[in-house]
Fold:
Amino acid sequence: MPARTYTITELATEFDITARAIRFYEDVGLLAPRRAGRNRVYTGRDRTRLKLTLRGKRLGLSLQEIKQLVTMYDSPSDTAQQLAAFMAVLGEHRKLLEQQREDIEITLAEITQHEERCRSLLTGAAARACASRPRRKAAA
Structure:
């Protein structure tokens, strides 16, 4: 039974990305489809590499980091070395995300303070506006 193959349209639909994005990943060496005339023919290996690439992008990894990791996935070399390299990349990425989270928390706290100050000023301004309006006489 021949191995399952995929067209660029099938992969684009499955992963909800554009054919242009898939061609870009091919250009940077992440995918290597066969050619059947003018058409690209993607194998299960290409599909897996695309899936790993998109997962790496969701993690915020650079294309260079993704390429290194996807290439390690393909190679029959020492698994411990591959895992150690992957853990190092993930550790660096974790540090970056934790710093970003800390920065976001500080910024959100500052926004909360500004909002509270604005509410306070608005409440005071509204109270002053009400106090300075002339009162109407009640109808008899």
